[in-house]
Amino acid sequence: MGSNSEPLHLLNELRTRSQIDVDSLDVAVAKELGPFAGSTSNQADAYLELLLPHRVELLQESIALARQLSGDYADVPFEELAFEIAACHRPFFCNIELTGWE
Length: 102
Hints:
The protein is mostly helical. The protein has helices at 5-17, 27-33, 43-50, 56-69, 78-87, 90-93, and strands at residues 21-23, 38-40.
């Protein structure tokens, strides 16, 4: 990693003392800097990730499921329900190796 090896060295040192989570839905970043114990993200990350062209199938599936479930969640706007379904589909987003708490 050239001149960036020092931050990675610090990350490795922190791993010996703590459990480190990745706070990103960017699989490339997680794979480059991992392994991580867990994964977190925020709604802005999820929204930006869902805008990517390769997430079309996930969005279509989420919209279909939201249509099926909308009667059970009448107080939730349809768009919000579809977004939450897509954003909570963790196996789809997290193609990264997580070690969990050991």
